[in-house]
Backbone:
């Protein structure tokens, strides 16, 4: 098992390894006396893992209740947030009790926001069961629900007290869901670690524990430097400005990691066109994404994506900050004025389209 310490406003460990779900009660006993625990999960994860976690918690003296939401992004709603809070109140949870988030980013973000709000904040434990949640949303304390106007528009920074990541849970993931996490892992490679990036184009199944630990380490360092997303943490948005626009234009039919893959390819080709990146960087990123079975070409036009990006929460006044790669392992933040957004997106998606076409016809 690997242990990464996150030294944010709350200090906590991220435990990564095989067979950890069965021991979750032991690990949680390390941060609190036995108490009441409400486990927030979804209806796909619940039949697979809820019983294992409950048995382990009960063995360690915890009393468990469940709040189960339907699987999918639409469950990250104000309606479910309210229902979760009402359940916590009905079960008479106090500030010495805990919430446990079990599943992917949707139960994780919802449970985190409920924990941030109930009694003005109680402790919560993240137990991510998807590769994507393991390398990204379970660490760093961003919690939220979606509003009609967009994704993650209501939320809070609230760090978990512990993260338990059982890599065996990834074995039950459909290929596409696993690939969502691969996209975020490629992101960390492009941001700071060329060795991690190189590994992503190969068969890395034997190294999954090490890869999750490396991603968590990179994220921990960024969160420790800028917990509240005022500067360096914005680097974690590489591929996300266009990615979120793709998700929105597809009405969330294109999943987060797939949309971020398209967004990273577009940002990389735009960086090349703008003279920001070393020659060949965008090709390397596009090639690795394709090798990982991820898409690079956006099904939407620059105009549609620009309109969606302009309504994103990442917009600050008259600019949007894009993350652009200079080379593999180094990116910079570039403020783009709202009048230039469509041009940048257009350069990016045209570059990605051309790369894909040339690859298809064997010209690359
Ligand atoms: N998922 C990006 C962040 O945590 O800042």
Residues:
């Amino acid at each position: 098992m690997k242990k990464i310490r996150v030294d944010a406003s709350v200090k906590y460990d991220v435990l990564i390894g095989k067979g950890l779900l069965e021991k979750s009660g032991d690990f949680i006993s390390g941060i609190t006396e036995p108490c009441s625990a409400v486990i927030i999960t979804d209806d796909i994860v619940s039949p697979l893992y809820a019983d294992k976690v409950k048995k382990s918690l009960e063995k360690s003296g915890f009393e468990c209740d469940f709040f189960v939401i339907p699987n999918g992004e639409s469950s990250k709603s104000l309606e479910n947030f309210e229902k979760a809070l009402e359940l916590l109140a009905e079960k008479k949870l106090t500030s010495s009790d805990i919430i446990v988030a079990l599943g992917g980013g949707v139960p994780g973000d919802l449970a985190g926001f409920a924990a941030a709000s109930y009694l003005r904040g109680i402790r919560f434990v993240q137990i991510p069961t998807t590769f994507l949640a393991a390398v990204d949303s379970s660490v760093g304390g961003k919690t939220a629900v979606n509003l009609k106007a967009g994704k993650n528009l209501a939320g809070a920074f609230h760090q978990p007290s512990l993260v338990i990541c059982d890599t065996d849970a990834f074995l039950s993931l459909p290929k596409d869901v696993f690939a969502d996490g691969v996209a975020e892992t490629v992101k960390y490679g492009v941001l700071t670690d060329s060795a991690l990036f190189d590994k992503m184009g190969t068969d890395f199944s034997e190294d999954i524990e090490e890869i999750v630990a490396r991603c968590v380490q990179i994220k921990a360092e960024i969160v420790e430097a800028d917990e509240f997303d005022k500067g360096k943490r914005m680097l974690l948005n590489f591929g996300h400005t266009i990615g979120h626009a793709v998700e929105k234009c597809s009405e969330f039919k294109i999943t987060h990691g797939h949309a971020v893959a398209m967004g990273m390819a577009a940002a990389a080709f735009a960086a090349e066109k703008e003279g920001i990146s070393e020659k060949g960087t965008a090709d390397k990123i596009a090639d690795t994404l394709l090798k990982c079975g991820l898409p690079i070409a956006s099904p939407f036009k620059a105009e549609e994506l620009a309109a969606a990006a302009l309504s994103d929460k990442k917009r600050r006044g008259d600019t949007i900050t894009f993350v652009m790669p200079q080379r593999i392992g180094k990116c910079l933040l570039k403020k783009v004025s709202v009048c230039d957004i469509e041009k940048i997106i257009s350069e990016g998606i045209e570059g990605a389209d051309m790369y894909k076409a040339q690859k298809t016809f064997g010209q690359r």
About this structure: Residues 175-360 form a domain with the Dehydroquinate synthase-like, alpha domain fold (CATH 1.20.1090.10). DSSP finds 13 helices and twelve strands in the chain. The first strand starts at residue 2 and ends at 7. Residues 117 and 151 are 19 Å apart (CA to CA).
